[in-house]
Design brief:
Radius of gyration: 29 Å
Number of helices: 2
Strand content: over 45%
Distance between the termini: 39 Å
CATH class of the largest domain: Mainly Beta
Number of strands: 25
Length: about 260
Amino acid sequence: MPATDLAWRIVEDRAEPIDVAAFEERALGFVVAAEEAIVLTDASGTQTRLARGEAAFVPADVSQMRASLTNELVPYDRSGLVSPDFAEDAGGDRLLFASESFRGPDSSLGSDLDLVRDVLAEGESTVLPETGFPTLIFATNGIVDLNVGATDRIRLGAGEAATVTGEVEVVAQGQGTASFVAAMIGPDVPAPPTPPVGSIALQVRGCQPGIDFAEASNAAFDVGVIGECAPVELLADPVLLANERELTPSEADPGNGTYT
């Protein structure tokens, strides 16, 4: 992820019934099913069902449809890592939070992007680590205090969010449980290895009657042992099956019985 200015954004959206929902280009971030189940459908046809409280990662610029599983509109929350120019652009939906601009990772590699959720009993706490970037914290139920350092404290009620830099202690306040989600930029991720590249050359030969493959192979197809094996032209190009994928020749010379 090359260094660039970024901002966190949270929007409350509505998933429409599947027969009217539309595909849209999405921002890098996460989708959280806030109240009822929704289904995400990518342009490739891949579908993901999110039950209440479940979340999914969304790659940048993916074309995706988000639909309810009923005949009613279903609310959900979308958290995005966007350009500061679009931090307050909710696309016609309800803007819940827009952060200040900050500098993103300065790396030619990818970066880890995490979403964590916790449910805390009254007075219970958890600690989120320092990442080097602002951490987005969104209270989804109850009340939480964010303790940053020795003196800084931020209180969030359900539906409120903040960004904090540095290690932060999240403490549940009030009666009952409190829950939150936190989005964090993590360390660099190494580039994937280059996949192996190669080719398969197939030569089709017809040998003398009575010569089987094992005998010909053991003789290394020596003409002095098995006689002349002439090229054989197949009626159709051969098809190989590799990892359940059909491979057809990119180069074929049927007259010489050669296929690559």
